[in-house]
Amino acid sequence: MSDQARLSPGDRAPDFSLASDQGDEVNLYDLLQEGRKVIVYFYPAAMTPGCTKQACDFTDSLDALQGAGYTVVGISKDTTTKLAKFRERDGLTITLLADPELAVHRAYGAYGEKKLYGKVVEGVIRSTFVVDPDGTVELAQYNVKATGHVAKLRKDLGLPVAPA
């Protein structure tokens, strides 16, 4: 359906350096230096129902994911100001990153043609990636559902589905 490059397990994860809602610069390869795996997920827009559900699910699972050696970062095209409001409104504890130019979205194949209500449109493709400490994509999932995605991801990673 779309001709943008998609990542597959075994590919080198594109590095990025993006501003967080808390005012710091977050670099993928700096996170990997800590020897942890990084879950990078892309979502269309802060403070919308599906994206809120997904962000709250990641927040609810964060302790268990961190305990299993994962760092979680959520990336959207929103401004850092909007992301800060999103964090505050919903009590989010995950790292939220702003990619308003969509460069990182495109590097990961998380922006392009998709079907929306039966029509082909261009937009953010809700996607999740797990990156190994060596910078290799371990898992690449495109067109994920907002609801139930974190539980499915935990199952795919061999972790208990319910937060501990």
Automatic annotation (TrEMBL):
- Assembly information from the UniProt record: Monomer.
In this chain the Thioredoxin domain maps to 7-162
Q: Name one GO molecular function term.
A: thioredoxin peroxidase activity
UniProt-listed Enzyme Commission number(s): 1.11.1.24
List the catalytic residues. C51 (cysteine sulfenic acid (-soh) intermediate)
> Per the record, what are the reactions this protein catalyses?
a hydroperoxide + [thioredoxin]-dithiol = an alcohol + [thioredoxin]-disulfide + H2O
**Record function comment:** Thiol-specific peroxidase that catalyzes the reduction of hydrogen peroxide and organic hydroperoxides to water and alcohols, respectively. Plays a role in cell protection against oxidative stress by detoxifying peroxides and as sensor of hydrogen peroxide-mediated signaling events.
Q: What class of enzyme is it?
A: oxidoreductase
Residues forming coiled coils: none
A cellular component term, taken from the record's GO annotations: cytoplasm
Q: Which InterPro entries match?
A: AhpC/TSA, Peroxiredoxin_AhpC-typ, Peroxiredoxin_BCP/PrxQ, Thioredoxin-like_sf, Thioredoxin_domain
Q: Which UniProt keywords apply?
A: Antioxidant, Disulfide bond, Oxidoreductase, Peroxidase, Redox-active center
Concerning its family, UniProt says: Belongs to the peroxiredoxin family. BCP/PrxQ subfamily.
Name of the protein in question: thioredoxin-dependent peroxiredoxin
Q: Which GO terms describe its biological process?
A: cell redox homeostasis; cellular response to oxidative stress
- List the PANTHER family hit by this protein, alphabetically: AHPC_TSA FAMILY PROTEIN, THIOREDOXIN-DEPENDENT PEROXIDE REDUCTASE
Q: Is Disulfide bond one of the keywords UniProt gives this record?
A: yes
